Fold:
Amino acid sequence: MKKVYLETFGCQMNVSDSERVASVLESDGFEITQNEATADVILFNTCSVRERAEHKLYTRVGQIRNSEREKPVIGVLGCVAQLEGETLFSKSKGIDFVLGTKAVGRISKIVNKVFEGEENISDLGEREEFYNWSVSPTQQHSPFVSFVPIIEGCNKFCTYCIVPFSRGREKSLPADLIIAEVQRLKDSGIREVHLIGQNVNSYRPKSDQGMEKFNGATPFSRLLRAVAATGIDRIKFTTSFPRDFHEDIVDAINEFENLCNWVHLPVQSGSNRILKLMRRGHTIDSYLRKIDKIKSSARDISLTTDIIIGFPGETVEDFEDTVKLYEYCKYDTAYIFKYSPRPGTPAFEMSDDVSPGEKTRRFLELEKVQKPLLRDSLNKCVGKILEVLVEKESVKISSELSGHSTCHKVVNFSGDKELLGKIVNVKITESKSNTLFGEIV
Ligand code: SAH
Ligand code: SF4
Ligand code: F3S
Structure:
């Protein structure tokens, strides 16, 4: 039995694709191993969103090439594979095959070809089946939480972003398939699903099938109601695109307890001028109207975002507008990224004119705003009772359990491991660094 080691970089979509790749390989007679040293095949599911992410691939392939071990088969999957294609064979010696983002279903075929002696093979073709291959329970990233892709690709073409090129155009999965999958997961003991996509709220399936009985102002809010009606314990969704974020999503959260109180709504910048250069299709005003609606919910919805600092042409004033916006929105937390020019995107043609030192300065300044707000958002949980899905035993302390609240905060508490997979009420007693601590009540 050939052993396969699979390493994943990038977003949840890549994690989800990796689960499927591992499932397909397993059912085709390969053994999935966590031990890189003895693997016959090493796969990298790659990310291209920033230069550093892309570089990880070259570093890792170099490490294997320079190690003492007998050379394994090396395959590259994911966004770098899709974008670079066959050029990877000359860019990084040792790579045996390249499999694009939509060709992942053909993983076993391509691995077998390498073992039959074919060299430098690439498949950047279209998907033959559209996600109708389920994840095997042994290959899930969690025994209790499942990722369910509902839309893939992106049509937005924000000027800095490579994703529309690596993932292609938006394609929504049929609602009836999604609902059936959630039902199946629920019946198999899964407690929480994450509906995932580059922009989940741009969901637009070809037909109504499966959602006929559910109302809502947009197909996505109808899908949310339909998925909620399956009765699965918890539903989370990422990422939402501001322009397509309809207020009705908040109404759906207000109506259904199992739609979790967490919204991730990337703003990218607090300056209208920069938003326009980024071609985001939203303004600060239109964004803030949505934030106000989210904040008006009695569900105490936790709010997170993504921000890029140092976009071409970003002045100190533009950056200060981002700081102001952050303070107004009081995000629970944010992913802050330094702008990284991506070849092939429109922004790559603009001058990357914020110096590295200034990018770092702005990054640290924004972090100074972020940290106390993160503290506040955790501190306000102290004394409250949160519903926590018990996901795993804590890595650091034995008899400590760990899980997420409905508002997606990490909570640690003592308890018996029999509780794994259960949803328990935890009274929060303390908050330390990025984590809440509490006692089961
Ligand atoms: N579809 C999502 C985000 C996908 S990429 C959205 O539109 O919000 C995840 C995050 O990476 C983005 O939100 C953005 O903040 C960041 N990002 C994308 N391209 C980048 C680049 N060239 N440089 C730095 N950060 C980038
Ligand atoms: Fe990239 Fe913009 Fe699409 Fe998000 S919406 S994936 S940032 S192009
Ligand atoms: Fe990276 Fe591709 Fe996801 S570029 S963020 S792995 S869609």
